[in-house]
Design a protein that fits this description.
Layout lengths: L3 E5 L4 H5 L2 H10 L4 E7 L3 H4 L7 E5 L1 H10 L4 H18 L3 E4 L4 H10 L4 E5 L7 E3 L1 H8 L11 H9 L14 H11 L9 E5 L11 H12 L5 E5 L5 H13 L6 E3 L6 H9 L3 E5 L2 H8 L4 E4 L6 H4 L7 E5 L17 H4 L2 H13 L10 E8 L5 E7 L4 H19 L15 H29 L6 H22 L6 H12 L6 H28 L17
Length: 553
């Protein structure tokens, strides 16, 4: 009998499309696996475009939240409704449940289904939220170490939900009837005789959106370089921004055909329309991933708190423009009062990049205030991006490469094929000293945890001694974390340590302290691996050796 897998992904369009590589990787891991997907009913039409799904299971999760908040239904009725709906999922006896929605409600569902294995968030009714699988846990760390993350969400989904395997591009299937609809939709505006460029002016968050008037100036500049037509896509909420862009376009002398598709497409129709275009110029949006899925090149304007390393276009052949500012990308918990990153993107330069993609025209010779990347597949078969214009901070670049290699080997046990940088980081001496100071703290924490395990086995339980030891353990951990966060050589380990301590398993004291001991031993091993690597740099003339591989869950 083939394996059965349940996917839970109920939040956004883009997250659904970004599962495409995971769906293919599951078939690589378990040929013929039967995969079911739980999705909010609003996104069912997108889910039906994904490959390798046996069935799409829908529920009005959005309405469920509204009913809960408004108390439109009592708790007992809501529970009865949910258990009745979930009964077939329980009966299926899945081999693996993969929860890609990181909240407690989805964790409760993942646990309730009773799969043999859970990956992602789980929330058993008698315990706290727990994260299963190191890749899924890493996903929760990314936002605190964004400068050094090099893993796209697509690959985290695939590695965490399945495992390593060959590169698999995102892919969605456009139904023939929607293909015909798209051709007929464009026909009155010039149809196949025009090179269409899709344009997404808006975004789900205003922080993620470039200024509409700058879009308009870009389109006018591009129309002077080559013959194109523009298809404006988006929701009704984005119409005003699109109108501003179109007005600016005409004022700047733009004469190319404009086709208005805002609010006029279903999601499958939007995918079909994007497939008819030669390029999508966009902010970081769900339609961006739809374009990738149908094979349309993307120019992604990565502004605000968007980090293209996390959610940028996946696979080769796409382009990303990122403001060159110390605060870019900003954090999700920050409030920006200037949005100055928007003004770093110059319309003529963006137009020149689009012209390069469309016609093979010369790559922009002069770029100011931005970094331009081209997406690619790296040596491990994962999505990545190559800097083509602008300059990266050397220290951030070094540590980004280092942590990319380190975590890949830690979580997979497979040697990373990305070659190490050939020189030490500029903070090598300071980082080496800090790592040396952390070693005895790691020993102390392991010792405290071992003693807690010993005390927890005694009868009667020495409560006072345990409380005093727990206090010393907490103080030592706080010192270790505070020290680690002072350097990029150890900060990523500290973030993982904090997350692991909050993720300790066990409902009884003995299992909880044993889990805590394993957490500290894991951190100590990782710390020793990093420290050993830095020590080896002393004897390599500044050239980086291979990173010692030590796998940990």
């Amino acid at each position: 009998m083939s394996k059965q897998v349940l996917l839970i992904n109920i939040t956004r369009i883009g997250d659904l499309v970004q599962m495409g590589t995971l769906l293919q990787r599951l078939q690589y891991e378990w040929p013929g696996a039967a995969v079911d997907l739980v999705v909010d009913k609003r996104f069912a039409s997108v889910a039906c475009l994904l490959p390798h799904l046996r069935q799409v299971v829908t529920y009005d999760f959005h309405g469920l939240v509204d009913d809960s908040r408004a108390q439109a239904k009592d708790v007992v009725t809501l529970f009865q409704d949910m258990t009745k709906w979930a009964a077939p999922l329980v009966e299926a006896q899945y081999d693996r449940a993969i929860n890609l929605t990181f909240n407690r409600r989805s964790g409760l569902l993942a646990s309730y289904v009773g799969a043999k294995e859970i990956r992602g968030i789980a929330a058993p009714k008698d315990g706290d939220v727990a994260i299963h699988n190191p890749w899924m846990a890493y996903l929760t760390d990314v936002h605190t170490q964004r400068s050094f993350n090099q893993f796209n969400l697509v690959d985290i989904y695939a590695l965490g939900g399945s495992g390593p395997g060959p590169f698999a591009p995102l892919s969605i299937t456009v139904p023939p009837n929607t293909e015909q609809w798209a051709r007929e939709f464009l026909s009155p505006h010039g149809g196949d005789e025009i090179s269409w460029v899709a344009v997404q002016i808006g975004a789900s968050d205003a922080m993620k959106a470039w200024r509409p008037e700058l879009f308009g100036q870009t389109l006018a500049s591009l129309s002077r370089q080559t013959t194109v037509g523009y298809v404006f896509i988006g929701t009704e909420e984005e119409r005003n921004a699109s109108l501003i862009a179109q007005r600016t376009y005409r004022q700047a002398g733009g004469t190319s055909p404009l086709c208005e598709a805002i609010g006029r497409t279903t999601l499958p129709q939007l995918a079909a329309l994007l497939a008819q275009c030669r390029l999508l110029l966009t902010n970081d949006t769900g339609p961006m991933h739809l374009a990738v899925g149908v094979g349309t090149p993307v120019v992604d304007l990565s502004v605000g708190h968007v980090d293209f390393h996390e959610t940028g276009p996946y696979g080769p052949g796409h382009w990303i423009v990122q403001p060159d500012m110390p605060c870019a990308p900003c954090g999700f918990d920050q409030v920006c009062f200037h949005h100055a990153c928007n003004d770093r993107l110059v319309p003529d330069q963006i137009a020149a990049l689009c012209g390069h993609v469309l016609t093979g025209a010369t790559f922009p010779r002069m770029t100011t205030g931005v970094k331009i990347y081209r997406s690619r597949i790296d040596e491990d078969g994962l999505g990545n991006a190559q800097l083509c214009a602008g300059r990266e901070d050397p220290l951030i670049s070094w540590y980004s490469r280092f942590w990319r290699r380190f975590w890949y080997e830690q979580f997979t046990g497979v040697s990373c094929q990305i070659p190490p940088l050939e020189e030490r980081p500029s903070d090598w001496e300071d980082a080496s000293r800090l790592l040396q100071r952390l070693a005895p703290l790691a020993t102390t924490l392991v010792s405290h945890a071992q003693e807690m395990v010993r005390l927890s086995k005694q009868h009667p339980l020495p409560v006072s001694a345990l409380q005093q030891l727990q206090l010393r353990e907490r103080e030592a951990r706080q010192r270790a974390v505070a020290l680690s966060l002072q350097s990029p050589s150890a900060a990523s380990l500290a973030v993982a340590l904090l997350r692991d301590t909050h993720n300790d398993d066990g409902n009884e004291l003995i299992t909880m302290v044993q889990s805590r001991l394993a957490t500290y031993q894991r951190w100590q091993t990782r710390l020793a691996t990093v420290a050993g690597y830095f020590r080896s740099l002393r004897n390599t003339g500044g050239r980086s050796p291979a990173l010692p591989m030590a796998r940990s869950a």
